[in-house]
Amino acid sequence: MFLVGVVPLLWITYRTVTHQLGADPAQTIVLFLGEWALYFLFASLAVTPIRRLVRWRHVHFRWLQTHRRMLGLFCLFYVLLHITAYLVFILGLDFARFGQQLVERPYILVTMPAVVLLIALGVTSTQGMMRRLGKRWLTLHKSIYLVALLAWVHVFMQVRSSYVDAVLYGVIILLLLAPRVIWWWRKH
């Protein structure tokens, strides 16, 4: 799973070194890393619905459930790389300009709570933190659903011409969250 998680980073590094990033390399890197953060978010959210809908009981399918945490951590990793690339390659580490960007580009401001939540989820993803937090751990980790919605809003607010990607990502998030709403509804 670790090797799968680093392949996108190796790919964008290769494309950078070989000068295959197009007319705006900084933008290409930032978008690529953001997209992969979304893909890992989708993958981590997909594990439970797939497991429950297919009713996996076989040992050879349990590896996905055990690696769900790593999928979530790779989501955090690519989010942090996405933000770092934006700060370094787009803003040149000009933090005053970053403050200005928060006002001018509300899609950045909207996602800041998602980033804070992802960091909290990453920090509390260990077995020790699960024991210490008890039932509160599960409550905290359900905030991933809010993270998914905020990530979609982030993408949607950036649309300039075609809504295809934003709608596709919205449908994927809807498909990943809808079963959970149904299960919650039936339980209560």
Molecular structure report:
This protein has ten helices and no strands. The protein is mainly α. The chain has one domain (2-187). Helix 5 crosses helix 6 (106-123). The longest helix has 30 residues, at 25-54.
Summary, kept brief:
The protein is globular.
Task: Show the helix and strand layout.
Blueprint: H1 2-17, H2 25-54, H3 62-66, H4 68-90, H5 95-104, H6 106-123, H7 127-133, H8 135-141, H9 144-157, H10 164-187
Core attributes:
mainly alpha; 10 helices; 188 residues
Strand percentage: under 5%
- Which stretches of 5+ consecutive residues score pLDDT under 50? none
- Element order: H for helix, E for strand: HHHHHHHHHH
For the secondary structure, the number of strands is 0
- Average pLDDT, rounded to a whole number, is 90
DSSP helix count?
10
Task: State the helicity in percent bands.
Answer: over 70%
Major sheet summary line: none
Overall number of domains: 1
Radius of gyration, in Å, reads 18 Å
Q: Would you tell me the structural class of the helices and strands?
A: mainly alpha
Q: How would the global form be characterised? A: globular
- Please report the distance between the alpha carbons of the first and last residues: 36 Å
